[in-house]
Amino acid sequence: MPLDVDVEIRRGDRTIAVAFEVGDAETVALVGRNGAGKTTALESIAGIAAATGRVVLDGRLLTDLPPERRGIGVAFQDGMLFPKLSVLENVAFPLRAAGVGRDIARTRAREKLTELAPAVDPAARPTMLSGGERQRVALARALAAEPKVLLLDEPFAAVDAEAKPELRALLRGTLADFAGPRILVTHDPVEAMTLADRLVLLEDGRVTQTGTPEEVRRRPATRYAAEFVGTNLFQGELVPDEPGVGILRTGGAELTVVWPDALPTASILDVRATLSPAEIALHIEEPHGSPRNVFHGAVEEVATLGGRARIRLRTAPPLVAELTTGSVDRLGIAPGRDVWASCKAVEIRLMVPGEEPDTL
Amino acid sequence: MYRRVPLSFVVLGAIGAAFVALPVLGLALRAPWGRIVEMLSGPGARTALRLSLEVSLLATVCSVVFGVPLAWILARGTFRGRALLRALVILPLVLPPVVAGVGLLQALGRRGIVGSWLERFAGVQLTFTTAGAVVAATFVSIPLVVLSAEAGFRSLDPRFERAAAVLGAKPGYTLRRVILPMVAPQLVAGAVLAWARALGEFGATITFAGNLEGRTQTVPLAVFQTLQTDQEGAIALSLVLVVLSICVLVALRDRITGIQDRATGTG
C-alpha cells in the first residue's frame, strides 16, 4: 500500500497503538470518540508527535524525517491559520517555506484560493473569517505545496451547521481530485460515511475495526461501531426454541430470531446480531398480532435530522429506532413518554463466529 | 456601585501618594524654567544627552539580540538546569547595580577573567570606554527583555509551530514568519522597558566604565556630578529623565500596570 502506518505513541500512562494502510486515491476515515487517539495518530504520521514504529510512504520510510520534509499536507482542526499573516500569505506559506519565489508563490496561492475559497478576500486576516471560510483556506494551504498525502483533522469542528453541506460537497470534490492517500479524522458518522471509502475505528488507542462503511454497517464489531453506523447491536447466547426459531439471550433480555438453516440446532455462545433502527416500529399502546419481539420502556432522547428522527429508548435491551418526523408527531413521541417497540424476528441479522453473514 | 474605603486607608494612601508625587513636584517647582532650554543645549549637557541616547539604544539592541533567543530557549527548551538558568538571567534585576559593576570588572575589566584575554588577543578594552557603558547598561536591562519575551512565547499555542513545520517550514523560518510576529507586542514592551532601564543606569556604569565626559558620562552620571556644583543644572537634566520616563509609562500603560481601570472601563 502507498501509505503504511504502524505506530505506537506514549501519552502519559497510556499508549496509542495504531496500524492501518491507505491506498492511492483512497479516503480513509479515522473515527472514534473524543480522546480515542485519532488526532495523535494523525500527528504521528505528520511527524509532530513522538512515536515509535513506522510510517512508510511509497516504500520510503518517513519515520526518521522531520515534519518539514515528509511532504504531507494537513488541514488542521480550527484551521490553525497564522493570525499575523493575510489569507494569501497563509496559503503561500508552504510554497515560500519550500523556497519558491515570492511572486510565483503568491500567484499559485491565489489560484488555490480561487478554486477552494472564491468568496474569501485574499488580503483579509484569518481572524475575520467564519469557521467554514477558515477551513477552506486551511485546505488551500494544505494543498498549496502539492503534498503526496492529505490529512484532514476534524474539518467540520468549527463550522456552522448551515455551512456544513456546502463544505462537505467541496471536500468530496477535493478528495476525489487528490491522487495520493487521504485521511480524514472525524467523530461524525455523517462525514465519515459520506466522504470515506473505508473506516478505521479507534477505541481507547486501538483499532477495533476496519472496513468499508457498508461492511461496518452490516457487521459492526463493537457497540461503538454499531452506534457509529447507526444500528443496534446485540451480543449473547443463541439457543434453539421451537423449530426454525431461536432465542438470543443478551443481558437480561431475550430476542426472538429466525434460526439459520446453515446451523445445527444447538446453543451457540458469543453470537452477535444487528437490527436496523428503521425496522423498529413504535406504539403508544401494547401491540397485538404478529411481532414476536416487543419491548416496553421510556423514550430517552429524540434527535431529528432532516425528515427523520432517531429515538433512543430505555428498553431492555436499549434500542435506537428511526421514524419519520411525521410519525413522531402523530404518535406524540417525546422524551419521558412510555412506548412499546416491536420488530419482526426476520429483521434481526445474526453474526455467528466463523460464519459469513451472507450464508445465514 | 456601593464602595466604601476606611478612613485610615484614605489617610495612609494619601501619604503614600504624596510620598511618590512630592519629589517629582519638587523637581518641577525648583526647575529653572526660564533658562532650561539654554542650559540643556549647553555643550556639557548636550554631550551627556547624546551619549545617553547612544548608550541606551545600543544596550537595547544588544538586549534584544541576545535576550530574545535566550527567552525562546527558556520557553521551549527541555533541558536540565533550565530553572537555574532563568534565575541567573533574572539576577541583574535584583542585584545592586554597584555590585553588578564590581562583577563586570572581575569578568571584563583589564585584569578580568575574560577582559584580560580580550585585551591581549583582540586589543579590546571595555573599562573607561563607551562600549563599557553599553555593556553595563545591557547587563542590567537584558532580564527585562528575557522576561517579557519568554512570557510572550509561553502564551503561544505550540500547535502553530507544529502546523508551520508540517507545512514545510524549518524552525528558523517558522520563528521569523509565524512566532515573532505573534509575540511582537511583548517584544516591543520588553525592549521599551529595557531601554528605560538602560537610560537610567548609574551604579554599574560608574563602577565599571567610569565617569568620563563624552565617553561614559551618561545623563544620570552627569546629574550626579553637576549636583556638586550646580543644583539648577542637575534639576534641568533630571527633568529630561522624568519626561522620558513618563513617556515610557504612557506608551506601555496597560502592559505595565496590567490592571483595567474599572471606574472608566466596562463598569
Count of extended strands of chain B? 0
Shape of chain B: globular
Strand content of chain B: under 5%
Strand arrangement in the largest pleated sheet of chain A: 6-7-8-3-9-10
Largest interface: A-B, 25 and 17 residues
Largest sheet of chain A: 6 strands, mixed
How many helical elements of chain B? 14
Structural class of chain A: alpha+beta
Counting DSSP E segments of at least 2 residues, the number of strands of chain A comes to 20
Notes on the structure:
The complex is a heterodimer of chains A (360) and B (267). With 360 residues, chain A is an alpha+beta fold. In chain A, 25% of the residues lie in helices and 35% in strands. In chain A, the strands form four sheets. A six-stranded mixed β-sheet of chain A has the order 6-7-8-3-9-10, with helices on both faces. In chain A, strands 13-12-11-14-20 form a five-stranded antiparallel β-sheet. Chain A has a five-stranded antiparallel β-sheet with strand order 15-19-16-17-18. Chain B is 75% helix and 0% strand. Chain B is globular. Classes of the chains: A alpha+beta (360), B mainly alpha (267). The A-B interface holds A 43, 46-48, 66-70, 72, 74, 76, 80, 82-85, 93-94, 96-98, 141-142, 145 and B 159-160, 162-170, 173, 177-178, 181-182, 184.
Briefly, what is this?
Chain A is an alpha+beta fold and 360 residues long. Chain A is built from 9 helices and 20 strands.
Based on the model shown, name its key terms.
heterodimer; A: 360 residues; alpha+beta; six-stranded mixed β-sheet; five-stranded antiparallel β-sheet; 9 helices; 25% helix; elongated; B: 267 residues; mainly alpha; 14 helices
